[in-house]
Design goal:
2 copies of one chain form a homodimer.
Chain A (H helix, E strand, L loop, with lengths): L16 E5 L3 H9 L6 E6 L3 E3 L4 H5 L5 H4 E3 H4 L6 E5 L4 E3 L4 E4 L2 E4 L2 E4 L3 E3 L5 H6 L6 H18 L5 H8 E5 L3 H21 L9 E5 L11 H13 L3 E3 L4 E4 L3 E4 L4 E3 L2 E4 L3 E3 L10 E2 L2 E3 L12 E3 L4 E2 L13 H19 L14 E4 L5 E4 L5 E3 L1 H14 L3 H17 L23
Parallel strand pairs in A: 1-2, 1-9, 2-5, 9-21, 11-12, 11-17, 12-13, 20-22
Antiparallel strand pairs in A: 3-4, 6-7, 7-8, 10-18, 14-15, 15-16, 19-20, 23-24, 24-25
Chain lengths: 438, 438
C-alpha cells in the first residue's frame, strides 16, 4: 500500500518553533541544550539515529557493529517536552515565508537551524563518485565492510593474477584522520585477522596504498603527528604516496596525476568533505557548499536562520578561513547557540562563539596513536592510544554502546581479532554506487 | 570490473573429499567433527557466516545486533587442515558423475553432505510470499527490524486512521516457537520501548495478532507449555486467533479462511518451513522438499550422498513422520555423521543415528518462558526464563558473541529498553520482496 496521507503534522504551540535540520553532533547538542528553553523543538533527519562518525572506520573494518556507534535519536530525547522528531528529508527552505519544504509537505518555523553536516567531496570527478567508497554514513561503512570481505572471498576463487591483485589491493585517498585510520585498520586486518581466515592467500600480495595530495599526513595536526603516523603506517608496509592527486578511476585502475596507475577493486575516498547544503539558502550567504555565518552562527543576511557544525563557516581573526570541520566545533557551536537562543527569548543578549580547541588525535592500529594537546604538546605511542580509546569510549551515546564497544575493543586487544565479519549488505558496485546505497 | 576468471579451485589431496553444502547447525557440527579425520573437507555456503536462528527474532525486534548471533564461518575453522570454505551458491548436483555445479564451475566429491537447512513454506500462496516477512536469515531479521521501526516513523506522519492502523498493527502467522517469540517481543516493544520513543502515538492502537491453524500454540511442545504461552501472550493483549488459516494478503489486508480481514502493513510469516532442496537429488529420494535418508543419514538410493538437519527425513518407529526440524536434531546428526564417516574411513562400522531429545523451550518476554524436559516434566515462569537465557547464551558461537549478548540482555533487563533500533536497511516492500532481499 502506498501511503497517501503523510504530512509533517506538528501540534501547534504557544511557544516559538525551532526547527533543527540534522541530528549530528551540532544538532544533537543544540536540541539537548534547548531542553528547558521556552521553545518548541522540531528535529528532522533522514535517519532515525545519530552517527558517531569518528568510529565509522571501525565498522568498515569489522571492529565494531553499527549499533554500537550510533544512537536512536528518539531515545536521546526521551522525556523532552514539546519536542518532535520526524524522519524526513528536507528538499529546500523558503526563507521569505519562513518555511521548509519536504516530500510530505511544508513546515513553518520561527527559528531555523541548519545542522546538515558534510558529505564526501569528489571535486567533480564523476567516475570516482560512482565507483569509490566514501565513509560518511553508517551504510557507507557497512557497504565498505561487505566489499572488503567479499573481495577476499572472491580472491580465493580467481585464477587470474590481475583479478587477484585488484581484489587484494586497497587504495585510500586522503591523508587526514579518516584516511590514516582506515589505512591503519586495513593494516591490522592484513597482519592479524585475514591470514587466519584465508590460509590459501598470500598476504604479501595485499597492498595498502595511501595517497595524499600535500607533502605530509594529518595536515591539520602537528608535523610531529604527521611524521609519527607515517612511521606507524610504514610498519604495516603501507605504501604512502605524497604530493599526488587521483584524477580518475574506472572501477579497476586508479589514475594518478603523474600518469601512474594502481590496480584495485576498492578505492576508499577520504580526500575531502563539503557542506551538505540545502536548496534555498541565498547564494550571497554561501561559500562553496557551506553557509557563511556571523559570530552567533546567524546566516549572513537572514534574521531567523542559523547554521552550525560542518555546514557553517565563521571566519574571524584566529580562524580567517573558518574553523576546522570537526566534531568539537559542531558540539561547541550547538551548545553556544542553545544558550544564545534561550537567552534571546528571555530578553538577554547574545554571546559570540569562541572555539575552545581541545586538541586532536588519530589512531593507527593497536598501541599506536598520536595526540596534539592545545598546549602545543604532542606525543604518540601507547599512552596516546589509551587516551584516544577512553576519549572515544566516553563520547559514545549511552551506557549500552559504551559497554559493547569496550567489550569489542578488549576482546580484539586480547585476541588480535575483529569480530564483526558478516557480509550483510552484499555489495555489487556495478549495480549501485556506494555513495548512494542506503 | 566483472570478474571473469572465478572458479571453484580446491587443491588436490590424497585424501577423499567431503563436500558439505551449508554451514548451519548440521554442517557446522559435521565439519568440526571431521577435524581429525583423514578427509579433505570443502564447505560451501551462500553466506560467510553461521546463523544462530533461534535468536533471529531478537534481531528483528531490536534486542540484539546481527553480529552477536552469527559467527564468521572461516573463524570457526581457523587452523583446520585440508579444510576449504567457499562462499558460493550450489545450483545442482549430478550424482551420476559425483559433481556439484555452481555459477563459477563444478566440483567433484567423494562424499557429499547436503545440509542446506530449510526455508519459509508459503504453501504456494504467491501473494503472501511476495509481501510477507519471513524470519529464516539474518537479512530477513534486519528487513523486519527496519519495517517495524519505519512503520512507527510513518505512523506519526499520517493523518489517515486506516493508514495508521495498518502501520501499527502486526499480524504473526504461526503459533510455533518463532511465532510465539516474535509476538512476545512485539508485546515488549509495545509495553516498554515504543511508547517512550513515540509519545505522540496512542499505543492502545497497536494491535498484535497471532494466527494459528490448529487449536493450540506450541503444537510440538506439551499442552502445558501451549496454555502457558497463550496466557503470557494475553497479558500483552495479544489477539490469539486459533483454528484459522490465512488465505491471502495484498500488502494491506490479511484474508482469513472464514472471510475475516485484518488491516496491516506487516505480515510476519512463521507458519511453516520446507527443506531447501537442491536440484539433482533423485525424485525417488525426496518427500516434499526434503530428502529421505536411512539411519546413517544416507540418501535413499545413492551411496555417497548424505543429508542432515532440516533437509533430511529419517523415519523410524519412534518418529514415523521423521524428527522435528530443530537445531538439536541437526547438531546430533552432524556429530553422528562425522563419527560414522571417520569410522568408515578407518574400516570400522557405522552406528545408526539415535535422537536424544534434550527437551524444548520458548520464551515470551521478560521473566516468561516455558520449558519441557525430556523426562516429561514441564514448567514455566522465571526459572524457565533463566534456563532459556543460559542455554541460548552458551550455545552462541564464540566468547565475544556471548559477552555482547549478555551485556545487551542485562542492559535490557535493567532498563526495560532495546538498544538496537537503527534503520539500516531502509525497506520498501513495494520494490523488494522481503524473502528475496539480500
Amino acid at each position: 500500500m502506498e501511503l497517501k496521507n503523510l504530512s509533517l503534522q506538528i501540534p501547534e504551540s504557544n511557544l516559538p518553533r525551532v526547527v533543527i535540520v540534522g541530528g549530528g553532533f551540532a544538532g544533537l547538542e543544540l536540541a539537548k541544550g534547548l531542553k528547558h528553553a521556552s521553545v518548541q523543538v522540531v528535529m528532522l533527519d533522514r535517519n532515525n539515529y545519530h552517527t558517531f562518525q569518528p568510529l565509522l572506520y571501525q565498522v568498515a573494518t569489522s571492529g565494531l557493529e553499527p549499533d554500537s556507534i550510533a544512537g536512536p535519536l528518539r531515545k536521546v530525547f526521551d522525556g523532552f517536552k514539546d519536542f518532535y522528531f520526524r524522519m524526513v528529508k528536507v528538499d529546500r527552505i523558503d526563507h521569505l515565508s519562513s518555511t521548509i519544504e519536504t516530500p510530505i509537505g511544508n513546515l513553518s518555523y520561527d527559528y531555523l537551524v541548519l545542522a546538515c553536516g558534510s558529505k564526501a567531496n569528489f571535486f567533480g570527478l564523476e567516475h570516482i563518485r560512482r565507483k569509490s567508497f566514501p565513509l560518511k554514513q553508517v551504510v557507507h561503512a557497512l557497504n565498505l565492510r561487505s566489499q572488503i570481505l567479499q573481495n577476499f572471498e572472491k580472491a580465493v576463487l580467481t585464477r587470474d593474477k590481475s583479478e587477484k591483485d585488484a581484489l587484494m589491493n586497497f587504495v585510500v585517498v586522503g591523508g587526514g584522520p579518516t584516511g590514516v585510520e582506515v589505512a591503519g585498520a586495513l593494516g591490522e586486518l592484513k597482519n592479524h585477522v585475514l591470514p587466519n581466515d584465508f590460509p590459501d592467500l598470500d598476504f604479501n600480495d595485499m597492498e595498502i596504498h595511501l595517497i595524499e595530495g600535500t607533502s605530509r599526513l594529518l595536515g591539520d595536526m602537528s608535523s610531529f603527528a604527521g611524521a609519527k603516523a607515517k612511521k606507524y603506517l610504514q610498519k604495516f608496509n603501507t605504501n604512502i604516496i605524497l604530493n599526488r592527486l587521483v584524477k580518475n578511476y574506472d572501477g579497476q585502475l586508479v589514475y594518478l596525476d603523474n600518469g601512474d596507475t594502481i590496480t584495485t577493486q576498492t578505492l576508499i575516498w577520504a580526500a575531502g568533505v563539503q557542506g551538505n547544503l540545502v536548496d534555498g539558502v541565498p547564494e550571497t550567504s554561501t561559500e562553496g557548499n557551506r553557509i557563511l555565518v556571523d559570530q552567533y552562527n546567524r546566516v549572513a543576511g537572514v534574521d531567523n536562520i542559523f547554521a552550525i557544525g560542518d555546514l557553517a563557516v565563521y571566519k574571524n581573526q584566529d580562524y580567517p578561513k573558518g574553523h576546522p570541520m570537526v566534531a568539537q566545533v559542531a558540539i561547541q557551536q550547538g551548545r553556544r547557540l542553545a544558550r544564545n537562543l534561550a537567552a534571546h527569548l528571555a530578553g538577554k543578549s547574545w554571546k559570540p562563539f569562541e572555539y575552545k580547541d581541545k586538541g586532536s588525535m588519530a589512531t593507527i592500529g593497536r598501541n599506536k596513536a598520536v595526540v596534539d594537546l592545545p598546549t602545543g604538546m604532542h606525543f604518540g605511542g601507547f599512552v596516546a592510544w589509551l587516551i584516544w580509546m577512553f576519549v572515544h569510549l566516553f563520547a559514545l551515546i549511552g551506557f549500552r554502546n559504551k559497554m559493547v564497544t569496550f567489550i569489542n575493543w578488549l576482546w580484539s586487544y586480547l585476541t588480535f581479532d575483529k569480530g564483526n565479519r558478516l557480509i550483510i549488505r552484499k555489495f555489487d558496485r556495478d549495480k549501485t554506487s556506494p555513495v548512494e546505497a542506503v
